[in-house]
Design goal:
Helices cover about 20% and strands about 25% of the residues. It has about 220 residues and is α+β, with helices and mostly antiparallel strands. Strand 3 and strand 4 form a beta hairpin.
């Protein structure tokens, strides 16, 4: 049986929307309280956490601040697979690049005012990041109108996406501020399978050429 799930939000909170999207995609029922319009619930949230940041999510007796899909999956082990019901794993999306959190030393080296952001590493050719024009050495400093804190936050937002979605990023590149939209392509429709050859009909010779190895997803890494 699913424990009670309550989320405290505001209308302009991007991570509140991401958390609610996660709940919907995983078939989790929840109660939402908009603390910008309900002072009683705002006080209730403050008593739970001692601070005013959103989202705040209460799952049974557990309280978490922010949107962390990995923690949600641990606290809601019976949640669905991302398609609203239990079953085989839902298709995941990836930016197709390596990355690490911006450190203070790197921020000083680049002349950035603070160590908030994510440094882009090698970008996989043909992946969503490359298609959006991201390059190795770019610094991702924001998601939409919100400041991007670190790699973990970026991974949480990407984890809430599915094929066909997109994400708006603010990028710092050699002193220039850019805005890019990364699109996660929807899967191609399946093509009908060829009919099996009839008895006596000639069969095509097997293709013996080695296909080019799939580059796969370049893992995101934190600095050691």
């Amino acid at each position: 049986m699913q424990p009670e799930v309550v989320i405290y939000t505001t209308p302009t909170c991007a991570y509140c929307a991401a958390a609610k999207r996660w709940f919907k995609d995983h078939g989790v029922s929840y109660t939402e309280h908009d603390v910008s319009r309900d002072p009683v619930k705002a006080t209730e949230m403050y008593r739970l956490t001692g601070q005013g940041s959103v989202p705040v999510i209460r799952i049974g007796g557990q309280v978490m601040i922010g949107f962390d899909p990995l923690q949600l999956a641990k606290l809601l082990p019976d949640a669905g697979n991302g398609n609203g019901a239990a079953g085989p794993s839902a298709e995941k999306v990836s930016l197709g690049m390596a990355a690490q959190s911006l450190t203070q030393d790197k921020a000083d080296e680049l002349g950035l005012p603070s160590a908030f952001g994510v440094v882009v590493g090698p970008v996989r050719q043909g992946g969503p990041a490359a298609s959006a024009g991201l390059r190795e050495g770019d610094v991702l400093v924001g998601i939409g109108s919100y400041t991007l804190q670190n790699l973990a936050q970026l991974q949480g937002v990407v984890a809430a996406k599915k094929p066909g979605d997109s994400i708006d990023l603010r990028v710092w590149r050699a002193g220039e501020d850019l805005e890019v939209t990364v699109e996660f392509p929807a899967p191609e429709p399946e093509t009908p399978q060829a009919a099996a050859p009839q008895p006596g009909a000639p069969e095509a010779a097997p293709d013996t050429a080695d296909p080019e190895a799939d580059a796969g997803d370049i893992p995101a890494t934190e600095p050691g």
